[in-house]
Amino acid sequence: MALSSTGADTTGVGPSPAPRPNRGLLPLLLAGNTAMYALYVGVPGMLLALQIEAIDPAEKVANFGLVSGVSAIFATVFNPVAGALSDRSGRRNPWILAGGLLAVPVMLLLGGVDTILLVTIAWCLGQAVMNVYQAALTSVVPDRVPPSARGRASAAVGLGLPIGSTIGALVGAAFSEDYRTGYLVFGAVVAATAVLFTVCARERKTPAKAPMPVRAQLAAFGSALKEHDFRWAFIGRALLVLGYFAVAGFQLYILKDHTELPAGLSAEAAVAILMPVNGVAMVVSTVLGGWLSDRYDRRKLFVGASAALAAVALVIPAASTSWTAMLAFSVVNGLGFGCYMAVDTALVTLVLPKAEDAARDMGVLNIANAGPQIVAPFVASLIVSASGGYTALFLAAAVLSVLGALAVRPIRSVR
Length: 415
Description:
Elements: H1 25-55, H2 60-89, H3 93-111, H4 116-138, H5 140-144, H6 150-174, H7 179-200, H8 214-223, H9 228-248, H10 251-257, H11 267-296, H12 299-319, H13 323-349, H14 358-387, H15 391-406
Helix pairs in contact: 1-2, 1-4, 1-6, 1-7, 2-4, 2-14, 3-4, 3-7, 6-11, 6-13, 9-14, 9-15, 10-11, 11-13, 12-13, 12-15
């Protein structure tokens, strides 16, 4: 769910402190992540789901799972690769700009296709360019923010999720009958934000790295996972994200087929209500979680507690199919997931193995974001098909969140 980096070195040899962040960097991080999450939520969560349903209503769950899973493979591959390339170049801004600008033609292409195969190809390209953008943008926090301010910086990044999700849901609902224009709007917003960020957030070029043989590069990607604390942070993130996206990816279909909506309320309109509710809860918990984790220097406590709260949230719609239950789920889930993403991001930046490989290693961590999205749609569609509904899916996701909460306990170098 993110230019020279800092982090706690588990070997005891820490990197040099990060320089003081540029004035205005945190608002720019907020804007950049808001635009990114608006597209990530509005496109697959609304426009893509409606487009796939329109193409083949009878097989919408299976087709959506297929498109989401295959495209997530591209996200998994492009994120660490783009991060390593930006490390080698010694620059981040050009990669942010390139990924943002390419979002426009790719979204235009996605809006113009009308078969499942072409939708899959177009959305794969969308995932590719957006993860080039994301990999460089994610590296800003470890690169330019000192450890003492990581919680606040991560909160700025984390706020992009609730705000972007709300914008994405509202824009997606507004253009639910006009896919092509909706896709283009999302692409244009990302492109404009990329231009704003690269113009206003100056960076000092770091020395470029010498090219590495392909085999050495592949080995380097896995080297971070040999570090004890980074590995457990990776596992915890992967488990929670798997549970989250198993449910979140099918939200529109859950509202159509599982939830008892009030008379006159469409599923599309329900999404436009739930996302702002969820977003407000996430804003509150993101800001408080980031600030409190800085003040008390207790990252693990906040990460574990917020993951456990996310599990509680998932039990609510499993126990009741009412609209009230979905509203309650949105509030509690927002409180848990918002705090988790803010504080866990700060925690991860403190367990990065090497400062000079920050973007690459953050890209490896982002496999824990993108990788579960490969598995989640397939697993979710199988659970729904086998159980005949979404209750079992909520319970399975809750178990994964509990395991994600427990995964931070073995981390040693961060409290």
